[in-house]
Amino acid sequence: MEAESFFRRDLINSLAGYKSLNLIGTKNQKGITNLSPFSQVFHIGASPPLVGILFRPHTVERHTLENIIETGFFTLNHVTESFYKKAHQTAARYPFSEFEAVGLEEEFLEDFFAPFVKISPVKVACTLVETSTMKVNGTVMVVGSIEHIWVEEKGLLADGSLDLEAMGTVTCSGLDTYYTGKKLSRLSYPKPDQVLKEI
Amino acid sequence: MEAESFFRRDLINSLAGYKSLNLIGTKNQKGITNLSPFSQVFHIGASPPLVGILFRPHTVERHTLENIIETGFFTLNHVTESFYKKAHQTAARYPFSEFEAVGLEEEFLEDFFAPFVKISPVKVACTLVETSTMKVNGTVMVVGSIEHIWVEEKGLLADGSLDLEAMGTVTCSGLDTYYTGKKLSRLSYPKPDQVLKEI
To answer: Domain Flavin reductase like, which positions (chains A, B) (predicted)?
Structure first.
């Protein structure tokens, strides 16, 4: 913990392992859209369906947070191997919409206020439920209610789970390293005196 | 959102994409150790170094949460391709230590109270900072302070970031599907008028 600051930042950032990667789409009241990459989106509950996002204090992604608080709407969009470099580039500080800046087409679905990424295989429409600020360092947690889900047909399995490998969804580590996933197996529900099966 | 309940559970659970996977090691005041898999460990800050964990309400992992609150100590341990099935099996309801039940050797390092997984390539010693309960559905967030880190030498890059692929760290989706990562690239810091480089 006495390491030099960049070394420490990179180590602590990659410590938990692989992270999910989503582009969050928002629009402000003036109609300007915004797109930014987030690796801290997680599962809060399935019934009601809720998602959580952590926003670091004082980071470049504050436009996204401001738009969510101002309008109450945002979208989550999976990032795939075919456009992860454009997704990375949306983190640059543009004075106009990142959709236009990096060349990702925006899409509006069913009159939902916030924009989706047209080529993304998983698109989720969310409305703001609550925000809370952590005392320890000012990190903001946003909880969203999942209102609509669009999934590319080849990515949706019969039981409802997603085939991330088939869709080419990427995962990331730290601040800048991208990976695809290679499936090992799906395992049966674990019980004390039962041998696990690949299902 | 009107889908049948198992379908909905699996869909919502895999919606954000790939997740990190860590085994959390704890020990209660009677000296009984516990080990359980968690896919919701995330980055809160690097300075001071903080980690967050989400605990679902009423799930099998409550022993872990009880031990953390009772003693103030826990460990994070990466899961690799060589023992992910044992890691999955630790989620079964055992009346004694999961280390013994699934055959993962426990290790104690530098007199830290909680046990580590001996064969894990990344071991992190944490102390409890705060817990908070989300009003919306009773999800509990634990914030821990990172006290010590052990990383297998081949996994630590010169700049401090971790080479997850070299260590064989696995990632998961939903409740039961495991993947290894295959590196695409590491990208330079994004700036508006600059072409991204692979670094």
So the answer is: 23-154
Residue B93 contacts residue B147 (beta carbons within 8 Å): no
Q: How many helices (H) and strands (E) does chain A have?
A: 5, 11
- Reduce the DSSP state of residue B107 to 3 states and report it: strand
At B29-77, the pLDDT tens digits run 999 999 999 999 999 998 899 999 999 876 555 899 999 999 999 999 9
By the 8 A CB rule, do B33 and B97 touch? yes
- Inspect the interface and report whether the beta carbons of B165 and A185 lie closer than 8 Å: no
Q: Which two tokens stand for residue B168?
A: 């064989």
Shortest distance, CA A67 to any CA of chain B (angstroms): 20
Residues B178, B181, B185, CA angle at the centre, nearest 5°? 160
Nearest CA in chain A to B83: A184
* Tokens representing residue B59 in the block: 């799930």
3-state secondary structure of A101: helix
CA distance B78 to A161: 24
Partner-chain contact B164 A88, CB within 8 Å: no
Q: Which two tokens stand for residue B8?
A: 């909905």
In this complex, the residue of B11, B176, B188 whose CB is nearest that of residue A186 is B176
Catalogue all structural domains in chain B, each as residue range(s) with its CATH number: 5-180 (2.30.110.10)
- State the ipTM, two decimals: 0.93
Residue A51 · residue A42 · CB < 8 Å:
yes
